[in-house]
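[agent] plan:
  1. take the single chain provided in the ticket
  2. run structure prediction with default settings
  3. attach C-alpha cells to the ticket
  4. add a short note for the reviewer (M.T.)
[agent] executing step 1
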Amino acid sequence: MARHTDSVCRLCRREGMKLFLKGDRCLTDKCAIERRAYGPGQHGQGRRTKQTEYGLQLREKQRLKRLYGLLERQFRITFERAEQMRGITGDNLLQLLERRLDNTAYRCGIGRSRKEARQFVRHGHVLVNGKRLTIPSYTIKEGDVIGVVEGSRKNTSILESVEGAERRGGFPDWLAFDKQNLSGKIVRCPDAKDAGDFVKVNLIVELYSK
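[agent] step 2 finished; step 3 output follows
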C-alpha cells in the first residue's frame, strides 16, 4: 500500500501550520514550525510569487488531505461521497473526515497522532460497539461506542496516549470518553464546525468542480 516516507515535518512547513503528524513532539519547541517557520527546500526562505486561483485551491486541498492522513484517491472518494449527500458539499466533506474511525480513535486519545491511531485500528486494538474493527475509513454513527480490546488495555503506548489527550486539546463535546474503561460514546455526529476553521473548504469544492 502506498504511504508517505519522507519527513512529515516538511509537510507542516510546506502548509505553514501544525498538522500534528508527530503527536506530542508538535507541542514542544522541537516542532519544525517553531524552529523553522518557512517552507522546506533551498527556496523556502525566498520570496514567493503571488499564487494563482488554482494554486490557492490546490494548497487548501493538500492541507486538509495531509491533516487527516489521506492519499489522493482516498480523498477523492470521500469528496464524491460528500457530493452525493444532502446539504452543503464542503460541510459534508468535513463531517465525513471527522467521522472516520481512525480520526475518532485519535479524538478519544487512542493514538498521539492520526497516523498512530490508524495503526492501532489496523492492528486490531480498537472496538466499535464491542466488535473488533480494522477499517480506518469506517464511518462512525451517533450512539456508536469506541473502545479498546481487553488484551490491549494495558498497552503502554495506548495508556500514555490517553493520558496526554488533555495536552493535545482534550476530548470534543460530541464524544463522551470514559478513561477508566478506555471507551468513548458518540453522543452526536460531529459537524463541520467541530473540524475547525483552519481550511477554506469552499476552495476545495471549487477545485473539484472544474
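[agent] step 4 note for reviewer: The longest strand covers residues 145-148.
[agent] ticket updated
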